[in-house]
């Protein structure tokens, strides 16, 4: 890692990559490769995985997609496809499409895949089998997900879903941001988070920040959630769906040089 200025300021430094805790997932809504390169020049050390959101992998050119995957890899960032794209394929062509999907993803250079069911109802057994297939048959690192974008799930059921994903071979499991967001005022449902963190090991889950597609969510609320997660669980909490322009802000919270001063 390159030397940093102000070395005398006693800033906390987190472990380098690859990391198993303090993982940050950035969401990529199709930024151009030039902007991507510029962004990674500054934020690369702090991004662990980058989601090519929803079905973007199916509508941008193969040349550009491969270039984006390679640029991420050059900075030790694993790009992966948003889980909704596989859900889309299953909805239209059934579960059997998964093998072609995994093979195509691997051909393009993806090493990580998300398996979710937050828009499409897939039985737990089928979801766990998709995870096992991706890991065992295709050598992929699989990110599971629990929760729904449109319905309210039982926190206890999400705990069981997380355990099932992990037992099937998932590396980490995303918790859908809509599940711990109060849609009336955009605030955090801390009672849901308490159940989740009491039921599973914190290192195994990634809290998704809610996006603008969730009612009454605003930038200040997302920032408050980041502050809560870091304050409550420490700098090594896993956080997902971070916007590109907010990557450095989150890292300042993790290292204590952000809006809130770190402890002496």
Which secondary structure elements does this structure contain, and how are they paired or packed?
Blueprint: E1 24-28, H1 33-43, E2 49-52, H2 62-74, E3 78-81, H3 83-93, H4 97-108, E4 112-115, H5 124-138, E5 141-146, H6 155-168, E6 172-175, H7 190-199, E7 205-208, H8 219-233, E8 239-242, H9 247-255
Parallel strand pairs: 1-2, 1-8, 2-3, 3-4, 4-5, 5-6, 6-7, 7-8
Helix pairs in contact: 1-2, 4-5, 5-6, 6-7
Assembly category: single chain
Lateral arrangement of strands in the main beta sheet: 1-2-3-4-5-6-7-8
List low-pLDDT spans: none
Major beta sheet, specifics? 8 strands, parallel, barrel
**So what's the CATH class?**
Alpha Beta
Could you estimate the helical fraction of the residues in percent? 40-55%
Bin the strand percentage: 5-15%
Shape: globular
Q: Find the CATH topology.
A: TIM Barrel
Q: How would you describe this protein?
A:
The protein is an alpha/beta fold and 264 residues long. The chain has a single domain (7-255), classed as Alpha-Beta Barrel (TIM Barrel), CATH 3.20.20.70. It is 42% helix and 13% strand. It has an 8-stranded parallel barrel, surrounded by 4 helices. Helix 7 links the parallel strand 6 and strand 7 (205-208). Helix 4 (97-108) packs across helix 5. The chain is globular and about 55 Å long. It starts with 23 loop residues before the first strand and ends in a 9-residue tail after the last helix. The model has no long low-confidence stretch (mean pLDDT 93).
Structure, briefly:
The chain is of the alpha/beta class.
